[in-house]
Design goal:
219 residues, alpha+beta, NADH Oxidase, 7-stranded antiparallel β-sheet, two-stranded antiparallel ribbon, 5 helices, globular
Length: 219
């Protein structure tokens, strides 16, 4: 009898979770604006870390170009991207936490796919000092997650960490330069409660959070 009760509870929880995720719709991103923004050299000159954010949301045009700049496909024939990746593993997934919910960037389709209808932005900032609390107000928190199952031929854990950390850095720098080009604020953070956030995001065992990057308009 007890087993039947547990089974019923599990079934109810499964369908409840599925319906919550289903309430989110995919966000079809626009083609990136290839003519906007500042020059590369000017963007490098103005690249900086900011910890003061407005709550103003990013328009779809800016969000679209931001995600493409981060790790979008720039060579359609080969499917290769704006950020380099060791052996083209593309092992870094970029999750996007917004007020509406959690999304996963699908570079091939240039779409934000719904993952969870829950605002996890503040869950990424639990270790922040009170003086830096405005980082939690950023409309966008990019969560960089490595999927070790994609890293074939590597058995050494230390090598996996080195490659995935470097690949994350490439993506994060792309975001920094795009933000400098468009007058946006951004800060990358390593102080994250990874265990709790991983559970909130329902990540698999082979997936690990590396860094989180806030993006928004300066306050």
């Amino acid at each position: 009898m007890l087993k039947k009760v547990f089974l019923c509870v599990a079934i109810i929880f499964y369908f409840a979770s599925s319906s919550i995720a289903a309430e989110l719709s995919p966000i079809k991103l626009l083609p990136p604006d290839m003519k906007g923004g500042k020059s590369l050299m000017q963007s490098l000159q103005e690249r900086k870390t900011s910890r003061s954010f407005s709550t103003k949301k990013l328009p779809i045009e800016v969000l679209s170009s931001l995600m493409w700049a981060a790790c979008g496909i720039n060579r359609p024939d080969s499917g290769k991207r704006t950020a380099p990746s060791a052996l083209n593993w593309q092992e870094i997934d970029v999750y996007v936490a917004m007020e509406e919910g959690l999304y996963l960037y699908n570079a091939k389709a240039h779409v934000l796919e719904p993952v969870l209808k829950s605002d996890l932005r503040k869950n990424t900032t639990v270790f922040l000092q009170p003086s830096r609390s405005s980082v939690a107000n950023a409309p966008l928190q990019l969560i960089y997650v490595v999927d070790y199952s994609k890293m074939s031929f590597v058995t050494n854990d230390e090598d996996k960490k080195v490659y995935s950390s470097a690949d994350t850095g490439f993506i994060a720098q792309n975001v920094y330069l795009y933000c400098a080009s468009e007058g946006l604020a951004t800060v990358i953070r390593g102080m994250v409660d990874r265990d709790t956030l991983s559970k909130d995001m329902k990540l698999r065992d082979k997936q690990k959070i590396i860094l989180v990057q806030a993006v928004g308009y300066p306050q």
